[in-house]
Design goal:
With 339 residues, this protein is mostly helical. The chain has a single domain, classed as A middle domain of Talin 1, CATH 1.20.1420.30. α1 runs antiparallel to α2. The longest helix has 33 residues. It starts with a helix and ends with a helix. GO terms for molecular function: calcium channel activity; calcium, potassium:sodium antiporter activity. Keywords: Membrane, Transmembrane, Transmembrane helix. This is Sodium/calcium exchanger membrane region. InterPro entries: K/Na/Ca-exchanger, NaCa_Exmemb, NCX_ion-bd_dom_sf.
Length: 339
């Protein structure tokens, strides 16, 4: 799409800025819609905001898969999930009143974390399994879709009829309606849809630029996807999470990250469907499993942190945030050396 390295880098940079700008606006609109629709921050973050902030990942990953770049596609989406979890650690550092996982405690987020671990294990099983495919699709791809839909049912049930309740403390921040933006509900939905379209298109442009950068510089698709495009396409999650925290919408911030990572499993499934060379799981390098395993490790660590609910840690951040940041740093070193 872009004729030279220079235009590819420029397109990559512009698309990144567009994604960040649209993402900051999305958090404000999403918080308002969560209140006006009655869904609440948790469910809106899971069912709607997560899907929208995943659009750059979806567009970028599917573009790479259809172009027969399996490592670029999988490293992008897998690396994005690890980056999203790091963003929660960054958000915990920015929220100074208490440990973020303590303040935003909910049974819904616990269920989401458990669901994410289950979903992350499925593509890893596909990678480790014998090369089997039906009509060019691995049998585990429809299983991922079914598990995601059933998981959403469990999350919805957990939210509407919880059997576990977090202990309320002075640091706990409940989901409360906030101040509305100008305009009515219809205007808010139109704004939300427009911003969603912008982020999706920017994600596609971003990956096209990344392909040129990878080809012209000689850097591996694994390194480009797992580091550069993963961080760029995940920037809406970072921006919306930080914006939500500044609005004191803590539940929205946490549920958006978990919901986005769960939705990204559908992105992996779509990559397998769109990949023209058969099952995508069997055409990727083994290093791709690193991001999946790291994401499972980080999610499990975060789950322990949410159950433990430490009020304050060293530097007023939870132990789980410090561990997640450390694990991600080690993973970056491993991928960089391997790539």
């Amino acid at each position: 799409m872009f004729p030279s390295l220079t235009t590819g880098i420029i397109a990559f940079a512009i698309a990144s800025v567009v994604i960040v700008t649209a993402g900051s606006r999305l958090a404000r609109v999403a918080d308002e819609l969560a209140d006006r629709t009655g869904l609440g921050e948790a469910l809106f973050g899971i069912f709607l905001l997560a899907g929208v902030t995943s659009l750059p990942d979806f567009a970028a990953t599917l573009s790479a898969a259809m172009d027969s770049r399996p490592d670029l596609a999988m490293s992008n989406v897998m690396g994005s999930m690890a980056a999203n979890l790091v963003f929660l650690g960054i958000a915990d550092i920015m929220y100074r009143k208490a440990n973020l996982e303590h303040a935003a405690a909910s049974s819904t987020n616990l269920m989401l974390a458990a669901l994410l671990i289950v979903l992350l294990a499925l593509p890893l099983l596909a990678i480790a399994s014998p090369p089997v495919s039906l009509w060019g699709i691995h049998p585990i791809t429809p299983v991922i879709t079914a598990a995601y839909l059933f998981g959403l049912h469990l999350v919805r049930t957990t939210d509407s009829k919880p059997m576990w309740f977090p202990r309320l403390t002075r640091q706990t921040v409940p989901d409360k309606p906030g101040h509305y933006l100008r305009g009515g509900l219809a205007q808010a939905w139109v704004t939300f849809i427009i911003l969603a379209a912008i982020t999706g298109i920017a994600g596609w442009v971003l990956m096209e630029g990344a392909k040129v950068i990878s080809d012209e510089t000689g850097l591996s698709d694994t390194l480009i996807g797992g580091l550069f495009t993963a961080l760029a396409t995940s920037s809406p999650e970072l921006v919306t999470t930080i914006a939500a925290i500044r609005r004191n919408a803590l539940t929205l911030a946490v549920s958006n990250i978990f919901g986005t990572n769960c939705f990204n499993m559908l992105v992996i499934a779509s990559a397998d469907v769109g990949y023209p060379g058969g099952s995508i799981y069997h055409d990727i390098t083994p290093i791709q499993m690193t991001w999946g395993l790291v994401s499972i490790l980080m999610t499990a660590t975060l789950l322990m942190g949410m159950v433990r609910r430490q009020r304050y840690g060293i530097g007023k951040i939870g132990f789980e945030s410090a561990l997640m940041l450390s694990v991600y740093a080690v993973a970056l070193i491993i991928v960089t050396i391997s790539g």
